[in-house]
Amino acid sequence: SERLAGGFRKTSERLSDNLAGLGGATKLTLEQLDEIEDALIVSDLGPRAAARIRDKLAEHRFDGAADGQAIREQVAVEIAEILRPVAKPLEVTAFPRPQVILVIGVNGSGKTTTIAKMGHLFQEDDYEVMLAAGDTFRAAAIGQLKVWGERLGVPVVAGAEGGDPASIVFDAVKHATEIGTDALIVDTAGRLQNKRELMDELAKVRKVLGKLNPEAPHDVVLVLDATNGQNALSQIEVFKETAGVTGLVMTKLDGTARGGVLVAAAEQYGLPVHAIGVGEKMDDLRPFDPDLVARVIA
Ligand code: GDP
Predict the structure, then answer these.
(1) What integer is the mean pLDDT of 169-183?
(2) pLDDT tens digits for 22-38?
């Protein structure tokens, strides 16, 4: 939580700056409400979440003076209300095994790192993990996944650059089934420039998976970079359409003032948030704690 607090502090400071000097009455004035709503929008919570929080605050009667501190505490309560329904850790429940988790996201979002971190979390719960290098478009992506696999001590199924992702996924599922792997985490290409190709590729992967196990993929996790602010929302839009996203992981919440976008995403899409990334290391993936995050944002 040290790491996380560090991450959201900038958002929080900005919000505090914007809220400083407010207060005095037990009910907020229209002017104060406007100012709070603006501050929330500036903090990347988006117009919908900001309006919802404004409405709640308008009804709220403060015990004593509604000073900056009291207002922030109430904002945190309302943010937590929005975040709580989407907090949902990724659990390994698939039967038969393996649980197949497709991980998608634009290049640079932290996809590969998140795969390694997820693998590490699963290992801590004593699950057997396997990785598959389904992003065959970038040689670097394959290499990077192999390096993480070595660090974790888990098998990585990979082919050559330019190979067929569907055939790698096929091999990986077969192998994972044979050796009784609990969780198979699959890296996929993140080319948003060519939506058609990306869709075709994912459709092919799904088809192969479906043949081996009609339940697979069990999860389609979209990795989003918090530093992209509102752009993260348009990525949800595109990937929902092209990939059937079932949940989110937001990365780089350390050292960004844009963590509020998580609230915007929760309000707008209601997709489960599995975890958050707060650094570059293996153990820098944290369970998503809505109350903690709400307190830190506000
Ligand atoms: P990919 O292209 O989506 O696979 O992205 P990578 O996993 O290679 O990550 C891109 C860069 O972001 C790397 O330098 C990572 O170390 C870094 N990164 C990933 N997740 C986080 C995070 O939560 N916090 C920080 N600060 N950096 C991260």
Answers:
(1) 96
(2) 655 688 889 889 989 99
The pLDDT assigned to 185 comes to 98
The minimum-distance atom of ligand 1 relative to the CA of 251 is 23
ipTM of the complex: 0.99
Phi and psi, residue 96, nearest 5°: -70, 160
Ligand 1 center to 142 CA (angstroms) = 15
Q: Whose CA is nearest to atom 20 of ligand 1?
A: 110
Determine the Cα angle at 186 with ends 250 and 225, to 5°.
Answer: 20
CA angle 121, 143, 276 (to 5 degrees): 30
Residue identifier of the C-alpha nearest atom 5 of ligand 1: 110
Query: What backbone torsions phi and psi does residue 61 show, to the nearest 5 degrees?
Result: -105, 120
**3, 10, 102, 113, best to mutate for ligand 1 pocket (most atoms within 8 Å of CB):** 113
Is the pTM higher than 0.80? The answer reads yes
Ligand 1: residue whose CA is nearest its atom 13: 110
